[in-house]
Amino acid sequence: MRNGNKGVRRVGGAGVVVALALGMGCDAAGTSGASDTVSEVADVQDAVDSGADTAQVEDTAAPDDSAAPDDTTVADTADTEPADTQVEADTSAPEDVAEVVVPTEKFSFFVTSYAAIQRLSGSVNGFGGDLRYGETGPGAGLRGADKICATIAEQSMKGAGAKVWRAFLSAADDGNGVQVDAIDRIGEGPWYDRLGRKLADKKADLLNDRPTSADAAIKNDFPNEDGVPNHRPDPTQGQVDNHDILTGTNNQGKLYAATATCLDWTANAGNKTLEGKPRVGHSWPRNGGPGGGGGGPGGDMNPANWMSSLTESGCAPGVNLIETGPPSNSANTVGNGGGYGGFYCFALTP
Q1: Which DSSP string corresponds to 289-339?
Q2: Any idea what DSSP says for residue 257?
Q3: Where are the alpha helices (DSSP H) in 61-188?
Q4: What is the DSSP letter of 24?
Q5: Strand 198-200 relative to strand 310-311: parallel, antiparallel, unpaired?
Q6: In angstroms, rounded to a whole number, what is the distance separating the alpha carbons of residues 173 and 69?
Q7: Which of 240, 248, 318, 250 is nearest to 276 (CA)?
Q8: Mean pLDDT per 10-residue run, the chain (350 residues)?
Q9: Are strands 8-10 and 244-246 parallel, antiparallel or unpaired?
Q10: String of b and e for 81-102 (b: at least 16 CB within 10 Å)?
């Protein structure tokens, strides 16, 4: 594994502060049980290095002043002793070889990490509110976001991208004049993170501030595509303020408002009059418990709700990973209140 960017700098427009303390997705542990999570990730990485499916990822959008990523050397753990030369083949299993199991059948949820958003967008500022990712025509924003989910899943676990992935995003128009509600895009459950830990059994469990059936290790700090809690993605650094996650959604998983989706995830100029301001949820609770309703288009706030916490400053690309308070009316980026324009990904099958 390797560590990514470190240090603090300003990126993009004035006042957009970025703490580049994120490594690649598998470099960290969360605020609760950090050492256990690091061990879990290390176990999976060891399994991968010793012959399981692998996904090599390079950070193509590192800032000029960031530290160069460590070269990763994968050790060959295969038995190098010469084959048995006896006439009759020895069909017994080698005593020193353990079976390697990677839980591919239980990987169906993640938060897109900043490292992945940075890499796929080709910018340290991320995508902003335009998630088309090469898609064109009606409904391109949602289709592009779905493709981003599948791409990141495949990069984390070879073969996982073949599942049908859906971004947890609502939209005013699916391209055919029909409203899209995020909760109706993601299947029926159950959903598991990259390490096989349960996020929720069914949709009803998701319709709460935090999923009621979630594994305690991830309930209050949703993990990224490598199973690393998103609040502290680099264990060599402190926590970062990155909880704002794009949804366009109210606290029942439905469209928050037509002005809350960056023109259905196709706009990132930062013109709030034309593009509106995106609704976001919190991947980890901010300041503890609820602070309001979270369901309607009136500027209400609920710092604990994972899908509808508050309304961000605008749709322009931008990253702020340092605690600077709530979104500012004078700003116009998706990350101003503490984030980078990440979103949630769900697979239709566990």
Answers
A1: S--S--SSSS----TT-SS-SEE-S-SB---B-S---SPPTT--BTTTTTE
A2: -
A3: 114-121, 140-156
A4: S
A5: unpaired
A6: 41
A7: 248
A8: 37 38 37 41 42 37 39 38 40 44 74 98 98 97 98 96 98 96 98 97 98 97 96 89 97 97 98 98 76 47 96 98 93 97 97
A9: unpaired
A10: eeeeeeeeeeeeeeeeeeeeeb
- For 116, the token pair is 């992945």
Angle at 228 between CA 237 and CA 129, to 5 degrees: 90
Query: 143 near 327, Cβ under 8 Å?
Result: no
Give the single-character DSSP code of 237.
Answer: S
Cα distance between the two ends of the chain: 26
CB atoms within 10 A of CB 225: 29
What CA–CA distance (Å, rounded) separates 342 from 285?
16
Domains and CATH numbers, the chain: 12-36+103-350 (3.10.100.10)
User: How far is it, in rounded angstroms, from Cα 192 to Cα 185?
Assistant: 16
Longest pairwise C-alpha distance within the chain: 81
